[in-house]
Amino acid sequence: MRNILITIFFLLTCLFMKAQELNCTITVNSDQVSLTNRQIFKTLERSLNDFINKNKWTNRALKDNEKINAQMFVTITDFDSNRFKGTLQIQSSRPVFNTSYETPIFNYKDNDFNFEYIEFQPLVFNENVYESNLVSVISYYVYVILGLDADTFSLEGGNDYYRVAQKIVTQAQGSNAAGWNQSSDRSRFELVDNLMSNTYREYRVAMYNYHRKGMDVLGDNNSTGKQVIAGTMKLFETMINRRPNAFLIQTFFDAKSDEIQNIFSDGPKMDIVQLKETLNRIAPLYSSTWNEIQY
């Protein structure tokens, strides 16, 4: 009997570990909505937090310190009965080896977050069935987060997660909900399509080099880590020369601009003149940030 109980406990423990890959906090802000009773927004916030953090997204068994840290900020701009309209800000990060620092991986705002929700309705994800726009959007970004995180640890390690995200896109397109259409500018379709496209292959090589060969080395060899990170910018330059205004370039620097400025304004000296020239060519929107790199 004792052995049976131990076996059951072990299986439940394994299941619990596999069911939680993310440590994600979702905040629902309804300040822009004129409504006396805001209980439905609180219920929605609790449901979304449970949906992400208690769901089984992969077959990986992770310890608590291996979970991916993420935040999602839902801003409701309009509410009518069970129909919600708003925006979704997504952020994720991962630890840097031999440091207490968390490096930002993804910082993205989706302006087409419209959905229907009835208070206390169950949120269930099935990758083979379109359940609702709420479930599809949140699940899509979960798999984008998982894919980007995996890409920072192994070259093109996020392929399996991006494929699920693509599957979600295909199923959601039939709903005619905003944000999924192939012709829409910077849509969910475009984001994951670009991540999987060989046209933008340098982006994923850069994600791996920047984090695994650059950031993870900074703690032990700051000079080498900085040289690798500087070299990574050349990969983006190659991609920009082929595809100017590439969507993925903006997503990278939305997350990384402040970090890059801090990295090259501290530590061992290196020639930053060429680096700043490269940064201004590939990410001119952040020229004021690059001008702050002083060494």
Describe the protein.
By secondary structure, the chain is of the alpha+beta class. It has two domains: 137 residues, no CATH class; 91 residues. The chain is 49% helix and 17% strand. It is built from ten helices and four strands; from the N terminus they run αβαβββαααααααα. The protein has a four-stranded mixed sheet. Strand 1, helix 2 and strand 2 form a beta-alpha-beta unit.
* Sheet with most strands: 4 strands, mixed
Helix content: 40-55%
> H/E series, N to C?
HEHEEEHHHHHHHH
- Determine the N-to-C terminus distance: 68 Å
- Provide a count of the helices: 10
Judged by helices, strands and strand pairing, the structural class is alpha+beta
| Overall pLDDT metric | 90
Low-confidence stretches: 1-19
Number of domain modules: 2
Main-sheet strand order equals 1-2-3-4
